[in-house]
Amino acid sequence: MSFVSRLVLVSSSLALLSVAACSDPVLPPSEGAFAFPFQQPSGCSIQNHNPSFGEVSYDKVSNFEIDGVNGAEIYCQVSGEGPYYVDAFVRGKGRQIAIEVKSLSESNEKTSPAEGSVTYLSVETTKTYSSPSKEKCLFYLSHPKQQVNKGALFITFECPSLDNLETNPHSECASGAGWIALQNCDRE
Fold first, then answer.
1. Are 76 and 88 contacting, i.e. CB atoms less than 8 angstroms apart?
2. 75-80 long-range contacts, Cβ below 8 Å, gap at least 24?
3. Is the Cβ–Cβ distance between 129 and 164 less than 8 Å?
């Protein structure tokens, strides 16, 4: 190989390395965890159970599930500068939950919660249960370790009503206080 050929080869290799070095870094996959008591008030045809995915309680997140690992699917968006818009879908291990909160901030406490929606489906329910438009779910921070910021959150939620309109008569259930934690969410 001639000197010129080697010089062209080395120059081309360096150019490719510099292009690769300048590319955007790969963002880590989204992660999520949730736990809540699915309750059976009168009118609910589903037995009480405590669905969870990952490990989360009111004061800590012990284990996040990771999008793409062991069948987990996690999409989340926590965007804005505060208040934040939240849109999330978490599925795995026979359970899935979707939430949407149009305006959530650090100032939302139990006495002044944000309103939003929850949709839940599991092997226990076999059908989809959603918060009705007339009675929204409540989202708030209930412990100093809970937070919401761009790309992540750890909050409490409760739903006075989770309904399934497919059954006849339709089934009206609820959730007690539960928790959801998300991180590495799409920033916009």
1. yes
2. 75/30, 75/186, 76/30, 76/32, 76/182, 76/185, 76/186, 77/185, 77/186, 77/188, 78/148, 78/149, 78/150, 78/151, 78/152, 78/153, 78/182, 78/185, 79/150, 79/186, 79/187, 79/188, 80/150
3. yes
Structure token pair of residue 22: 């300048």
pLDDT digit string, tens, across residues 56-92: 999 999 999 999 999 999 999 999 988 999 999 999 9
Q: What residue has token string 């409760």?
A: 158
Q: What phi and psi values does residue 4 have, to the nearest 5 degrees? A: -65, -40
Regarding pTM above 0.85, the answer is no
What is the rounded CA–CA span in Å between residue 163 and residue 127?
A: 10
Domains of the chain by residue range: 28-183
Omega before 41 within 30 of 0, i.e. cis: no
